[in-house]
Design brief:
mainly beta; 10 Kd Chaperonin, Protein Cpn10, Chain O; six-stranded antiparallel β-sheet; 37% strand
Length: 104
């Protein structure tokens, strides 16, 4: 895939959630909510401030992020559903054991 977001936009792939609750109940696809976590696939060069200087983004490729439930624009690139969102739609970067546990 060759896609580079412009300015302060970020390309994100949603991270799939578990299909079972902690109690072992299996949740059907129709009842599952879309995950609010994702992996950053590509980032733009950054936004410009009032003086015209380029301000780089705080997120980078490979970061696991938490974003607003309805944030971003859904697009399909190479048959894969992805999100393009502004950096301001990202609530934070998930780090530590939680991110590794979700990836496993």
């Amino acid at each position: 895939m060759k896609f580079k977001p412009l300015h302060d936009r970020v390309l994100v792939r949603r991270v799939e959630t578990d299909e079972k609750t902690a109690g072992g109940i299996i949740i059907p696809d129709t009842a599952q909510e879309k995950p609010m976590q994702g992996e950053v696939l590509a980032v733009g060069s950054g936004a410009r401030n009032e003086t015209g200087q380029l301000v780089p983004l705080d997120v980078k490729t490979g970061d696991r992020v938490l974003f607003a439930k309805w944030g971003g624009t859904e697009v399909k690139i190479d048959g894969e559903e992805l999100l393009i969102m502004k950096e301001s739609d990202i609530l934070g970067i998930v780090s530590g054991s939680t991110a590794k546990k979700k990836a496993a």
